[in-house]
Design brief:
Layout lengths: L2 E2 L2 H21 L6 E5 L5 H17 L2 E5 L7 H13 L5 E4 L9 H7 L11 H8 L8 H12 L8 E5 L6 H10 L3 E5 L6 H6 L3 E4 L17 E4 L3 E3 L2 H7 L4 H10 L2 E3 L4 H7 L2 E2 L6 H17 L7
Parallel strand pairs: 1-11, 2-3, 2-4, 5-6, 5-7, 7-8, 8-11
Antiparallel strand pairs: 9-10
The structure holds guanine.
Length: 307
């Protein structure tokens, strides 16, 4: 059986480190770091994510401010809000929760954020710094995943890494970070020919496509390290019976509650082939939040070059 890579446990370690650093700041008379979260509209999933981020801030002593513009906010109103947060000396980090309503231009909003406060690491300047291998604010999910892999002693140099998914939030930055650690990296996606064969080459397989149970056990190289970034809600019982055939716990939960969370990887099948696997939930999800708080502290301590 594969080792379960407990993301929650590692995220708790990261949160403890942030908490200690925040306490040390306060003890020396400095103010706590402050994160401003902008949540436009009332998308239920975004509300859950933002609630988790704000609760984690409170746990570590980081202050948070929530801005909740209505779903019909205009681009110029949103821009003004961001400009105000850029100019506020008491705000260290700014996070605009995605997705934004369709009438808004997400990139235009993200590009407005002062790169020194861009705790998501989505601003082109921070993306460019990552591209060049320079320190800076880096996207939370891949950077926390990398920290956890290193903590568990996962060898990356010279290994074949396959990143399934090419998003700017996870896939592309994860590929760059693996490359920085001297892995041989392939980015695979929905148009990749013979996806199972490409995945089977991976010593490290990162799945970040948002397709429940896409990666089957037969796609995984024996002994591979599998990082499952997907967080999907499954409600269809017939579909669940197919993807959870080797995962009686998930199937029972689906039958009992009518819904269950799962990753992009068939966890039960992966456990029989891989060397190590992150579970869903309790794997990458908590790491994302820990990465965000770490970035907020970093932004506050101005450990990053503002460009
Ligand atoms: N929506 C889904 N993931 C993310 C994230 O990492 N940051 C932001 N701002 N929005 C998201």
């Amino acid at each position: 059986m594969a080792q379960i890579l407990d993301g929650k446990a590692y995220a708790d370690r990261m949160l403890d480190e942030v908490k200690a650093a925040v306490a040390a700041r306060k003890n020396s008379g400095l103010r706590a770091p402050c994160l401003a979260v902008v949540l436009v509209g009332d998308d239920p999933a975004s509300q859950v994510y933002v609630k988790g981020k704000i609760a984690a801030c409170a746990k570590t002593g980081i202050e948070s401010i929530e801005h909740r513009p209505a779903a019909d906010v205009t681009q110029s109103e949103l821009n003004l809000l961001i400009e105000g947060l850029n100019a506020d000396p008491d705000v260290d980090g700014i996070l605009v929760q995605l997705p934004l309503p369709k009438h808004l231009d997400s990139k235009a909003a993200l590009h407005r954020i002062n790169p020194a406060k861009d705790v998501d690491g989505f601003h082109p300047l921070n993306q460019g710094r990552l591209f060049e291998g320079l320190p800076g604010l880096r996207p939370c999910t891949p950077s926390a995943c990398m920290r956890m892999l290193k903590f568990h002693g996962v060898e990356m140099a010279g290994k074949r890494a396959v990143v399934l998914g090419r998003s700017e939030i996870v896939g592309k930055p994860m590929a760059l970070m693996l490359l920085e650690e001297n892995a041989t990296v392939t980015i695979a996606h929905s148009r990749t020919a013979d996806l199972p064969a490409v995945c089977r080459e991976a010593d490290i397989l990162v799945a970040a496509v948002g397709r429940p149970g896409l990666v089957e056990g037969s796609w995984i190289k024996p002994g591979a390290v599998v990082v499952d970034v997907g967080i999907n809600r499954v409600t269809d019982l017939a579909f669940g019976e197919r993807i959870f055939a080797a995962d009686p716990v998930k199937l029972a939960k689906l039958r009992e509650k009518g819904h269950v969370l799962c990753g992009d990887v068939r966890f039960g099948e992966a456990m029989q082939v891989a060397g190590a696997v992150t579970p869903v939930p309790g794997g990458v999800g908590p790491l994302t939040i820990a990465g965000l708080l770490r970035n907020t502290l970093k932004a506050c301590e101005a450990l990053v070059c503002p460009g």
